[in-house]
Amino acid sequence: MAKKRYKIMFDAPVTIVFVLLTIAVYFVNIMMKESLIPMMFTCRSLKAADPEAAFNLKNALDYARLILHVFAYTDFPTLLINAVILLLLGSILEERYGSLMLFIMIFIAALVSGVLDVCSPQVPFTGADSIIFMMIFLLSLTALAKHTVQVSWLLAFIAFTAYKAYGFTTTGTKNLSAIIQDNLGLLISLAAGICGSLAGFLIAPKKSRKSPKADWKTGNDDTTQLMTEQE
Predict the structure, then answer these.
(1) Are 41 and 62 in contact (CB under 8 A)?
(2) Nearest to 132 by CA among 78, 170, 174, 95
(3) Which residues contact 223 (CB under 8 A, 6 or more apart)?
(4) Please, what is the average pLDDT of the chain?
(5) How far apart are CA 119 and CA 48, in angstroms?
(6) What is the DSSP string of 36-66?
(7) What pTM did the predictor assign?
């Protein structure tokens, strides 16, 4: 009897490369005494008090920062949590929509997040929160298209939003204006996530929106096809 051989499968290249880049940026930033992220991976606001720290319309690097900021983390626990979430959700979406489509959705969410960040008056933030929100929204939209509301994704959205809101809030609950000001970064991430998920949901072909569960019920999944070919 022939022994079964196992092979390493690079199942979600876009997601894996994205996470590896965030990890690389984090450690290179440490080796450069935390100078890399402020220099290359932080969006600059148009409303910055210091002209030298403001967004320069003639500087190509400032435009690159609109995308690059999603790779930057200065806190390892946050990086670790987000990396796990990205790997779990990204692999599902990449299998369903394809690597190219997921790359486009990530690009749109990152660009919207960067543009809104540049236009905001607060200190620019970094990280891939907008990408995670985009993934949660897209999976929820796929369920809504089938006229169902999945409690698991609803709870995931509430939990992640509460986690990020707790991290952003610094002035307590004095008034609504203070809460909005503290959570402006969270609102930007939510808006960017919505834009990325809607773009993917509207552009992607309908056949790619089928859930693995639905495909299994109809007998059209990859496993069934493989078994048929072997027979």
Answers:
(1) no
(2) 78
(3) none
(4) 79
(5) 10
(6) HHHHHSS---TT-SSGGGS--TT-HHHHHHH
(7) 0.79
